[in-house]
Amino acid sequence: MKTLLSTALKHIDGKLYILNQAHLPWQEEWIECHSPEQMADSISRLQVRGAPLIGISAALSLAKYVEQGANEKEIYRAAELLKSARPTAINLAYCIQKQIKAYEEQKDLQRIIKVAEDLFEEDQKLCKDIANHGFDLLESGDSVLTHCNTGGLVTTGIGTALGIIIHAHNHGKKLHVYVDETRPLLQGARLTTWELKKAGVPYTLICDNMAASLMRDKKIQKVIVGADRIAINGDFANKIGTYSVAVLAKHHNIPFYVAAPYTTVDPNCLQGSDIIIEQRNAEEVKGFVSDYQNLLWSCEDALVYNPAFDVTPKEFVTAFIIDKGILKPDDLRYQFL
Ligand code: MRU
User: Fold this and answer.
1) How far is the CA of 131 from the centre of ligand 1 (A)?
2) Domain count along the chain
3) Do residues 263 and 317 both lie within one domain?
4) At 213, which CATH number?
5) Is-contact 161 126, C-beta < 8 A?
């Protein structure tokens, strides 16, 4: 496999590495990924995360397995394992299925490697296209609210929602970003602030429950978020809390945009209620669990509800910013069916 370099995933000197996002922003630690089992574990533990990146990381891991001499039976088993690491983002299944289809067309395992390389490089271009389409939607002076983390850490390029903001900033637009901390795992507080700081974009971190009063006080002009799966009717799944932000934006008449590559649109998913929502460990809500410190702030036996994602109905979406262009929810079916 060729040399491939991005913010949080790289293949260099014949070795595959992920940036351990569970340790950010405290430590920038690259982990070598030796096997599909290890990659599946890293995906489910969110060491590597975000819809586009989990798909591409899984694809590179399957490609590496081919290089290590895996046979057809072993590849099929590894493909199933990787696909099942997380259920909500369609990108994971999309990437693995694309590799398996390419293999089956010519019964040539080398094609699994070529597809992985192509997926990695294509995502960089998709991010550029998304950023270019989104550019015109932002005006100098805008304050933009975003939720979760959608930059270079979750793609092989500049990012999706955050990519638009960083691209516009780099091209002279004066923007300010309000960053939802994004409970329970704090992707906003830990990762989006890390990315915005590196990019030199001014930002303010807020707790998730602060957006309403900022909107009422006219401090937010636009909302841009990412997506983990977009149904063909325009409903979409994204990090838990996105739906609340969408409801608030509609109430306050603030445009609500969803940025994603075409690989996040699932033409086989007719509506949001068909999307499987990942349920995660109770410990993530009862306290803070990390390799650095474990802090319990609730009663140990508290009952917990911890869905990783929620579904926002299409009525709340002003437009999707896809690599193919700006699409209204009802236009998705014409592009993708
Ligand atoms: O659980 P995570 O951290 O993988 O969730 C990530 C998100 O919800 C992102 O907003 C989404 O994947 C879009 S990333 C371009």
Assistant:
1) 17
2) 2
3) yes
4) 3.40.50.10470
5) no
Residue carrying the six token digits 């929502």: 277
Range of the structural domain that residue 19 is part of:
4-126
Is residue 117 domain-shared with residue 142, that is, in the same domain?
A: no
d(CA 218, CA 291): 40
Which parts of the chain sit beneath pLDDT 50? none
Same domain (yes/no): 290, 220: yes
The residues, any chain, with a CB within 8 Å of residue 56's CB and separated by 6 or more, are 9, 91, 95, 116, 119, 120, 123, 156
Q: Which of 187, 191, 276 is nearest to 231 (CA)?
A: 276
Q: Does residue 114 fall inside a structural domain?
A: yes
Active-site option among 228, 235, 266, 310: 228
Cα(142)–Cα(257) distance, integer angstroms: 14
Rounded CA gap, 323 and 58, in Å? Answer: 22
Place of tokens 């991005």: 6
In a domain, 131, yes or no: no
217 labelled catalytic: no
For ligand 1, pick from 47, 146, 150, 181 the residue to mutate: most ligand atoms within 8 Å of CB. Answer: 150
Centroid of ligand 1 to alpha carbon of 149 (angstroms): 6
Enumerate residues lining ligand 1, CB below 6 A.
46, 49-52, 89, 148, 150, 154, 160, 187, 226-228, 238-239, 308
Residues 116, 162, single domain; the answer is: no
Residues 145 and 281 in one domain: yes
Give the pLDDT score at 170: 98
**Structure token digits, residue 153:** 């850490």
Residue 293 has a CB neighbour count (10 Å cut-off) of 8
Q: Ligand 1 centroid to 222 CA: how many Å? A: 19
- Which residue's alpha carbon is nearest to atom 6 within ligand 1? 50
